[in-house]
Write a structure and sequence with these properties.
Keywords: Hydrolase. The protein has 280 residues and is an alpha/beta fold. Helix content is 28%, strand content 24%. The protein has two domains: 15-105 and 208-277, Rossmann fold (3-Layer(aba) Sandwich), CATH 3.40.50; 111-204, Hypothetical Protein, Haloacid Dehalogenase-like Hydrolase, Chain: A, domain 2 (2-Layer Sandwich). Helix 1 packs parallel to helix 9. The strands form two sheets. The protein has a nine-stranded mixed β-sheet with strand order 1-15-14-13-2-3-4-5-6, sandwiched between helices.
């Protein structure tokens, strides 16, 4: 691993084709700080990379409705986006009324995972993003990452949902205890990542940001050496390992930094902009 300075690739001949990069960018803690603010430096650097002809793809744990404002702020009108930790992939198209279409949606049955988690975390809040984009939640659980207002339902209604993403949050349980509880039951048959504040995201088995990005890389006929990813959370680990150039933010936990090939500045030092400018 190395601290990021400059990066150059060899064997590249045509800027628009063989030199085109697939640049996957996490949102929270990478493009925006933990108050949701994006600096002008980060926004301008992202726009410059888009203007240079690279494929900039927002890859986030946020659901679709919470991802679109970030896409709009950067000014992306074409290309792709990965939402819900790989559960939803969209294709941007300015000719469509919504400006996008969903091209892939990975669903699963949440029953086994939810039942196990309810047994060890009876006071936790639960939410499920279902196939049509709606959110269902217990105890009026709402969060900005949902992108829409969740509909409050009984826990039992969540069990039979066709899920894209499951969220579990325990407001009063310390993170270390929360992690130990989740790891203790193992959650077989799904992929999951623990966040910063006793927060758990669950997706279908084998579904991560990396799995969605790999499908897009193949669709775009780009080589693995053309892939760049920037992130700061444990849900970015697979993406950082997948990318030829995986860059962890300076404030990322050690386990995330160990998955990267480089470390850039923190989100408060515009670390993402440093990486983006290095591509120009």
């Amino acid at each position: 691993m190395e601290t990021m300075t400059e990066y150059s690739a060899s064997g590249i001949e045509d800027r628009r084709k063989t030199d085109q990069k697939l640049v996957a960018l996490d949102v929270d803690g990478t493009l925006v700080d933990h108050d949701g603010a994006m600096t002008d430096e980060v926004r301008d650097a992202a726009r410059a990379v888009v203007d240079a002809g690279h494929q900039v793809i927002i890859a986030t744990g946020r659901s679709l409705g919470a991802t679109l404002p970030v896409i709009e702020k950067i000014g992306l009108q074409t290309g792709y986006g990965v939402c819900s930790n790989g559960g939803v992939t969209i294709k941007l198209n300015p000719e469509l009324p919504s400006g996008f279409e969903v091209v892939r949606r990975e669903t699963f049955s949440p029953r086994t995972a939810l039942t196990a988690l309810r047994g060890i975390l009876p006071a936790a809040l639960f939410a499920v993003e279902i196939a049509d984009g709606e959110f269902l939640s217990t105890s009026s659980f709402q969060d900005a990452s949902f992108g829409i207002q969740a509909r409050s339902v009984d826990f039992e209604e969540l069990l039979d949902a066709e899920a894209v993403r499951v969220v579990v949050h325990s407001k009063d349980l310390p993170l270390a205890d929360f992690e130990a509880a989740v790891q203790g039951i193992g959650l077989p048959g799904v992929d999951y990542a623990v966040g910063w504040s006793s927060w758990l995201d669950i997706a279908a088995a084998g579904v991560t940001k990396a799995s969605a990005l790999e499908k897009l890389r193949a669709d775009l006929a780009l080589g693995r050496e053309a892939t760049v990813a920037v992130g700061d959370g444990f849900n970015d680990v697979e993406m950082l390992r997948w990318a030829h150039r995986g860059v962890a933010m300076g404030q990322a936990p050690q386990g995330v930094q160990e998955a990267a090939t480089e470390i850039t500045g923190t989100v408060y030092d515009d670390g993402a902009a440093q990486v983006l400018r290095s591509l120009l």
